[in-house]
Amino acid sequence: MNWQAAVETTVTGLGYELVDAEKGAGGLLRVLIDQLPESKSGEFITVDDCEKVTRQLQHLLEVEGCSYERLEVSSPGLDRPLKKAADYTRFAGEQIEITLKLPFKGRKKYRGELQALGEGWRLVLAEDLRADTRATKRAAKQSEPADDVESVPAADAESAGTALDFSLDEVREARLVPVVDFKGRRVADVAGAPLTPTPAQGAHLHDEIDGGRIQ
Fold first, then answer.
1. Which of 46, 116, 161, 183 has its CA 20 to 30 A from that of 61?
2. Which fold, 85-176?
3. DSSP readout, 173-208?
4. HSE toward the beta carbon, residue 10, CA cutoff 13 A
């Protein structure tokens, strides 16, 4: 069993969702876990969750002979990445930011509400991006010769540029837009003390094992 299969088997076997797993510089093995969509145990991943997964991963990676220098198990944070089709389905209706592989109308990054659209997806753009898109369209029209300008119905002009239709193959990266509710749930920091997340801290709870090289 390779390290990817070992990580996925461990995380899912413990009743969590594997968001991402990657090897970084210096032998870092970084694993992001989340509660299952149907989970009733709570909204956020806690330190106890990270510790549980860490212990099991240490054991299984050693048995399978997978090597690493440092193991980090953490929550996906408030800006959770969307990696697979199931992530898009789960977070339909939420605000996300996507980075396209190729620019569309001069930009790669778009932000708005994610909606399902048949076999693909639609992003209803955030108001600031709508305004920017409409301003670009107006500037382009003003630079055209008068004979080339076509009249556009008001309804069409108002709705133009307010949504982006895309397929997952066109996306380089996608993440939830962080929303911090200081009146909502509280999470624990890595020391176990209650902590209300700030935009900088998010919900990045992690459990690191240094010097955990497995031959």
1. 46
2. SH3 type barrels. (2.30.30)
3. EEEEPP---TTS--EE-TTS-EE---TTTTT--EEE
4. 28
